[in-house]
Amino acid sequence: MAREMNCAAEQVFVIEIGNTRTTMAVVAGEECSCVRQWQTSELGSAASARAALDEFLARATGVPAAVLCSVVPLHAGLFLPLLAARFNGEVTEVKGSMPLPFTLTYDSPASIGEDRVALMAFAAARFPGKPVIAIDIGTAITFDVLDASRCYLGGLILPGIDLMSASLCERTAKLPGVVVREGSGLLGKSTEECIRCGIYWGAVKQLDGILAELLHHPGLHDAGSGTAVLLTGGNSALLGPALSIPAVIDPYAVLKGAALLSGARS
Fold first, then answer.
1. 6 labelled as ligand-binding?
2. What pLDDT, in 10s, does the model give residues 198-257?
3. Catalytic residue, candidates 54, 107, 115, 222
4. CATH 3.30.420.40 fits 12-120+256-260, yes or no
């Protein structure tokens, strides 16, 4: 049974720890302020975690509660005790096993990515009464689908564009690593450009193709109110505008969804 959303615009301090980047922000409803990012690899010790937290909280004072949304267990273990000490135990850790504002039917709820949980919480609040396809385009690309009744229909996980580039470089003798960027043409005239074009357009057409199939899924095809598509993640602004299916792009959707889960307990 889905729990009701806590939609009050109270300030919540949120830490989102991803495989590539860690983001801290103060979230109040739809507003994110004091946003600060680090490379997750920079925060792998107790000292570096404490220093980052001290730096952030020196600028963001008076926030009553904190939420941790981490897909990296090592870093979650570093930040949780620090947050508990700073916020007098008023710390929520996002998990698939916690009370959620949607019905999660997953073989092992504890194993679903915390970022996916937070994204679906935001999707359910952002598009009430509508089915939603929520896509996080980051280190991995994840699709998660909610029907109009906020019931989870399932998802997909595939490699993100940076992983594609790194894999080509690491698993071949001569192909270089490249950074995929906006404006890649369809055809390249150097090895680097051929890789950029291939990864960029391969990812765009992959996303388009999966979206087209999902829109014909039985749980979505019969939705008279239409299906919303929500994009987030570090590469959403790069790939989203090239999609043929209209989508809402919100780079802070996971932060906002984590804030909505403040106060929930497993």
1. no
2. 999 999 999 999 999 999 888 786 655 589 999 999 999 999 999 999 999 999 999 999
3. 115
4. yes
